[in-house]
Amino acid sequence: MAAAERAAGKFIAITALGLGLLKVYRLLASGALTLDLGVGRRLQPLGPLVETVGAPPEVVFDVIAVPYLGRTSHALADKLHVWEHGSDMVLAAHFTEVRCGVTTTLETVRFQRPDRIDFRLVRGPVPHIVESFLLTPTGTGTELRWQGELGTDLWAIGEWWGGRVARAWTRAVQISMRDIATEAARRAFSTARTQPATRRRGSSFTLCSPSRAPTVRSRAA
Description:
The chain is α+β, with helices and mostly antiparallel strands. It has helices at residues 2-30, 57-69, 155-194, 197-201, and strands at 42-53, 80-85, 89-98, 101-112, 116-123, 128-138, 141-152. A hairpin with a 3-residue loop joins strand 4 and strand 5. Helix 2 (57-69) crosses helix 3. The N and C termini lie far apart (62 Å).
């Protein structure tokens, strides 16, 4: 009888531990819990990812910046909520769908017109993320480049968790970069159609229609 009680107690303890770890995992994945211990910090790169956009840098910049610095559209209401506005920086919550639900991250976003937008994580599934969108004019429009750095604590365990977060983060950025490219190309094409023909011939970049926009995504779009 004593042996059976010990086995039952062990089973209950293991089950409780498993449920506790699952709860912690879900809290981390959702961004509700951030473990910032400052012990065993390891860093890993994010990106780079590069997207060729058929629109000038000022158009691409506005596509990214307007939802933050202007009025967030209804279409983005379930993905973005700006908490505080400044002249060149905002504090914003992002909502990203992942396998286990929705991850909520809180980030500062700084705008350096016309060629740079920087994100810094305040609260999320890991203690440290910084990332940048860099816009470089090209002969056909803009090179949109994303790169950054992700940090986790607790040595190898944190590094394993950081790898999972990095993969999900990068997939989200790939989708956003694709959306940014498509919307920027659509705006540039629409603007070109309304301009006089002489001005279009003098343009320094080549516009592509929405149907030909690059299809290769950040939570910013």
